[in-house]
Amino acid sequence: MAVKSKLALLLAHRSVERVMRAAGRPAATQAKVLQGLLAAGRHTAFGREHRLGDAIDHASLVQAVPLRDYEGIRPYIERTTSGEADVLWPGRPLYLCKTSGTTSGVKYIPITKASLPNHTGSARRALLGYIARTGNAAFVDGKMIFLQGSPVLDRTGAIPTGRLSGIVANHVPGYLQRNRMPSFATNSIADWEQKVEAIVGETMQADLRLISGIPAWVQMYFERLLARTGKACVREVFPNFSLFVYGGVNYAPYRSRLESLIGGPVDSLEMFPASEGFLAYQDQGPGDGLLLVLGDGIYHEFIPVSELGTPGARRLSIGEVELGVNYALVLHTSAGLWGYELGDTVRFVSLDPPRILVTGRTKHYTSAFGEHVIGEEVEGALKAAMAAFPCEVAEFTVAPQLSPPQGGLPYHEWFIEFAAPPADMEGFGRYMDKALQGRNPYYKDLITGKVLRPLVIAQVQRGGFTAWMKARGMNDAQSKVPRLANDRRYTEGLGLKATG
Prior knowledge:
Helix content is about 35%, strand content about 25%. The protein is an alpha/beta fold. The strands form three sheets. It has an eleven-stranded mixed sheet with strand order 6-3-7-8-9-10-11-15-14-13-12. The model has no long low-confidence stretch (mean pLDDT about 90).
């Protein structure tokens, strides 16, 4: 065993011990974080406006700070970009993280000196946790590929601005610099398709052992790699490849296609990074939930999804949540986000320590008739159908069809790009519809009551989603296809496969 992997194993167990001490006292850990945030925030313009100096605990925080989405906090960020200091957090941000959200357009999220360690340190602890759990540290002795945004930063006012992954790329510790790929020059290529080709050329002879990225973009990289090398699977190119790190989307819909490209199963490690903060990561086996990051500059609130938008909606602390309930996440952070509605929904699968599953987005759902189908339900139905009718899905999204061109009852339309379609498409669709009914009783009532007809599959031609994202300026390593919508805005322009 090489020196790096030996050292990694030693550090891994120490890291896990520290993490679990904080996770084993979630309420106390979060209370300490809150006190630190309030102490810093009371001296800012936001703090004076909201009397943060009078807030002493969760209850008084809720009274002092109303909920805000990005549009609600935008005026404070604009004051920051115009050069004003001490607006949301003491001083000025180190960076502005640019995100191209599907619901709010372009957003600029501050990253401060206090919040940067959350982004970099949580990712490190996630990898060390995997090493401690599995004993596999060999990947630190080989090459690691990170499919990410450009590390070349622009400026908004006087503040360096870029994608989160590009910002973090400027803070990779020195001991990993020799291991990471692609090179700075290749990573700086703006056009994603050109960048992927350059990454293939630069990495195809390397001893790759870890790859990190959103599954859809990793899938594209693997397809281009195999086309260039003529190999049957990724393992023929990279025999020591042992770990796939991903975040931001559910891996399940992509798993069969990626494992087909790889040449079999490979260990995976799920993370929950966001521009607003690194929120959770997998610390056990797949499917056991993600360990919530509790002691790293983020104070969490949880609103039951069933109460969203109501005057009496409860804003719960970590000590008040329950298992099995869908919650909308609200954040208070050391980047100066106060009462920030993240837009993600989660469900706790463990309280001691707190572990969550990401179940969807508050603005991404299909509820044309009150069914409120969420991401977790459509992904689960698709996974079940893929197991019963073997196939490979490259990408998909779901939208309601309220006015069927052929007449008849409305329905949910599933736009699916198959890498390998099922042999029985009709059976696949029927099975998926039954699986969705089993997960959402309201949807089932609409089907059995003849308000909706069973779902319809629209096959998207190969490369259709990539072209769709490129046309919308979302052709980069951090963009994701929305799973659900309550209208058809995400399906316009998708090239469909001819059925005749």
